[in-house]
Specification:
The protein has 238 residues and is an alpha/beta fold. The chain contains 7 helices and 7 strands, in the order βαβαβαβααββααβ. The chain has a 7-stranded mixed beta sheet, sandwiched between helices. It binds zinc ion. Zinc ion binds next to loops.
Length: 238
């Protein structure tokens, strides 16, 4: 019996990520799989997505609205129950106490048993990709929000005043890490992942994305007796 089997039933899950489309790229196969298993899933987006365009004719306001609608459509495709937008400015995110409190508030509001976080590690081994600073800040603030902020009554007492009682997350799955220890079989949900990704029409176009997603998921699944997988580093919290 694994450590996970000894835990009580997981009823609610949450994904905290920086930009509209991060969750779809990183873990939408897993999200769709968990929804199919009966877990209520919630999304928390830390930024407003206002820098995700190179079109000189698009305004911040237009882009925020477009990306918000795209994220809602992607979440709907996956069966995610609700999406909370924290609306911090895209591209400028830092792990501030305000960000930590905002994430902790969402955790206390939706009470996830299981939470998916972005990694807070900067990689120096992968060439061709530099992890976005908003991802790093989101990952770091999310882990700090899980422990100890969301579960400690004395931290940010204004959250109690607002009606948000402490909540303890039991499992944290970290995406994008170089030291994964958990592989989720997404063979049955990769089509949902791809369909959800293409809802981000301002960011994701053309057949190459779908090809890349399949190649990457197949590569992740190598040696695991799965066709397609997503991988995580998992923390089981006591
Ligand atoms: Zn991103």
């Amino acid at each position: 019996m694994s450590q996970e089997d000894q835990q009580p039933e997981i009823k609610r899950g949450m994904v905290v990520f920086a930009h509209p489309d991060d969750a779809e790229f990183g873990c939408a196969g897993t999200v769709a799989k968990w929804v199919a298993e009966g877990i209520e899933m919630y999304y928390v987006v830390t930024t407003d997505g206002s820098k995700g365009s190179s079109d000189p004719n698009v305004s911040y306001e237009q882009l925020i609205q477009t990306r918000r609608e795209e994220q809602l459509a992607a979440a709907h495709e996956l069966g995610v129950k609700e999406v909370e937008f924290l609306n911090h400015p895209d591209g400028y995110l830092q792990h501030t106490l305000e960000l930590r409190r905002d994430i902790a508030r969402a955790i206390r509001k939706y009470k996830p048993d299981r939470l998916i976080s972005m990694t807070s590690e900067r990689s120096f081994t992968i060439s061709g990709y530099i992890n976005h600073p908003d991802h790093l800040a989101t990952g770091d603030a999310t882990l700090a929000a899980v422990y100890p902020t969301a579960r400690d009554r004395m931290t940010f007492p204004e959250l109690i005043t607002e009606g948000y009682e402490p909540h303890k997350v039991r499992e944290v799955y970290v995406t994008g890490t170089e030291t994964p220890d958990c592989w989720i079989d997404i063979t049955d949900s990769i089509e949902k992942k791809i369909a959800a990704l293409y809802k981000h029409a301002s960011q994701v176009t053309g057949p190459d994305v779908q090809k890349w997603v399949r190649e990457r998921a197949a590569q992740t699944a190598e040696g695991k007796e799965m066709q397609y997988a997503e991988c995580f580093k998992v923390f089981y919290l006591r």
